[in-house]
Amino acid sequence: MPHRVAVLALDGLLPFELGIPHRIFGRSLEPAPGNKGAKLYEVVTCSVRPPGPVRTDSDYAILVEHGPEALATADTVVIPASYELGPVFEEGRLTDELAAALALIRPGTRMVSICTGSYVLAAAGYLDGRPATTHWSSADHFQRLFPRVRVDPDVLFIDDGDVLTSAGVAAGIDLCLHLVRRDHGAAVANEIARRTVVPPHRDGGQAQYIHRPVPEPQFATTTAARAWALGRLDRPIQLRDMARQESMSVRTFTRRFREEVGASPGQWLTQQRVERARHLLETSDLSIDQVARDAGFGTATSLRQHLQAALGVPPTVYRRTFRASADTP
Length: 329
Description:
10 strands, two-stranded antiparallel ribbon, 6-stranded mixed β-sheet, alpha/beta
């Protein structure tokens, strides 16, 4: 059976964020010739009330066909943001209606929030003593309201195993793609990203707010340097060589790179090499030594250290996990 995702629609919801899980999970298919594989997820939208209309923050309501009982059948519950959280946002407590709905969720269900949906998770106690994030503009208020939560206001999303939180809007796309990648590998996630026309991977630790996401015309960008580096990940890449692609000093290039990307050149290179290694481990029969060389890590030991740091597993275990997943009907 496909993994069942229940999206909880609350009054005052943002339609864009409500649609993210449907677009990412709902279009995820098993790899197959012609992209005709079976669906990997079943996505349903539910309300805390019996089926009926739910208000949005726009000039229309949506008709939700499932009540809170859908939460009891979910493997993953996603809670998008809402602008009408009432006592949840103001006092840090659940309404009776919301508490009754959340009580239907089975133990062990994966819990996910997008943007200020994190307030619901925190009010329900899911985030006590755990790291979490939310939209940067609400981070201070969130921390004051929920002092037991370890709030990180600077990252796109946080994966704490069975509870995941993301920053606002587009970070919800990043988090959902991350979950597809975690569940089914980089190849499936990359295909969804390609069809959605979004970047296939933005690391969760990347900054929420990038100072110059769209450079002004008079400023040079670091786009050419990144394209140059992606074309030669299997070879040594020095910071001065990347700066030379943009005719900048190393100091200027490093500052401009962080402003545009939200990470240092070294962090970004490591992320890209980890993604290359994941793809090769999932889709090829290359030896671990060859994967390490092709991804730019040089040695199997270096690859093992970086993959362990990024994913928590060594290359052989990662390959075995996704090969077993692909071989299971």
